[in-house]
Amino acid sequence: MDPRTLIQTLTATFEAAGYQLYLVGGSVRDYLLGRPSQDLDFATDARPEEVRRVVRGTQPDAIATVGEKFGTIALRYGDLTVEITTFRAERYQPHSRHPEVRFGTSLEGDLARRDFTINALACRGVPTSPEQIIDPFGGLADLQAQLIRAVGDPAERFAEDPLRLLRAVRFAAELGFRIEPRTAAAIRRAAPALAEIAKERIGTEFTKLLVAAHAAHGIRLCVDLGLMAAIVPELLEMLQMPPLKGYKDVFRHTLLVVERIGREPLLRWAALLHDIAKPRTIGWEHGQVHFRGHERVGEQMAREILRRLHFESHFIDAVAQIVRLHVRANSYSPDWTDSALRRFVREAGPVLPALLALCRADVTSARPARVEAAQARAAELEARIQDLLAREDVAKLDSPLDGHELMALFGRGPGRWIGEVKRYLLELVLDGELAPDDKERAAELARAFLAEREASPPPDGATAEESRHVGSAP
Ligand code: ATP
Ligand code: MG
Questions:
Q1: Cα 308 to middle of ligand 1, angstroms
Q2: Rounded to the nearest 10 degrees, how much is the dihedral formed by the CA atoms of 91, 96, 102, 105?
């Protein structure tokens, strides 16, 4: 459904029932910015139970009442989502995520408790011209001037809800706005309070900042205003690094990569963290700086950082995997064999596309010749992988003989030997020396492998199998 039609229908329906209904907050802001969103927020003087009754006539596809005790009824109409919230009067209680809700009676009161002037706008019906906008706090002027400004006294507003500290910067990153000086000063003073906010809320809000169009601006603001200590403090270590002659500034480089890569949470987080361990792994050899092992240390740091912010484990694994493998992807050279490619593809697994995206974005040298060479390398790696994947299903490659076949073939029972033989055969398949369906040759090779294994048992004198039965004898 067209958002305009829906706004008109809802407004008419509420007014016919004797209630006020206004489009409010971010929805109005986004309309005025010429980017109407699929999420529409309304405010009304109707109580939630009345909202439920009134909207029935508009035939929504779904109604959710989970927010009802906070005054919000959520609705879905096709791909549009609508939240209708009863005017509120409460000011947030400091440090409480669930303030007592008191319903209010006026739109002005409702707008007064909103965070920033550009979010404290309302409109009766579809916003088509500025004259229609109800704007008690100068939000229209701030939208014009591209400023994020707190409604009322900034210090008070941030004390009420410290998440607003980060929301201010997030909006600056989404819109490319500056933060008005008094508001910025209040953020700097209140910054330590961000640490009191639940970590997952910080993670969610910071992710919105990361995928924003002006993410680098947002990250810099987080650092400059003292918020980063409660988000990813490890990033601040980059700013403590000594200037390295002939080596790029790691923080600046990180920001460039973040903005070069696609605007998805996984890609942006991987870009932000790919070099996170460089400050901790810095070393010198023959007058040259190096960061040996930074991908391993970085993998661990990425896990810690994301776990702390309560990300889901599959997301954490994916970012960590990309961080661990990015150096290998970047080290691609034309002399990589197909077998090296196969191993790389298998190790990357589902994060392969993200890894290749990072590889392409991770090219920020100031020297054009270098950039060109690196981009050509990334493109070639991608082309060769595509070519390989067109020829074979690399992920499915396996030993030509499975455990049952091996037991039947050698008349032996289950044991560790099966895994060893299968691994050996798989290695040969990956090397391109054994066809994945050549069971006959696989049987010969397995026989030879077992014979050799029996002839020269492991150094402790026991075969793997025996030691397992005997236990760990000294
Ligand atoms: P987006 O939907 O892109 O996150 P938004 O401005 O719509 O941006 P929401 O979090 O959806 O932000 O909130 C909707 C409106 O509710 C905001 O525009 C603002 O008016 C108000 N609001 C949200 N969170 C707060 C808060 N922590 N303090 C005060 N007002 C808030
Ligand atoms: Mg919204």
A1: 25
A2: 30
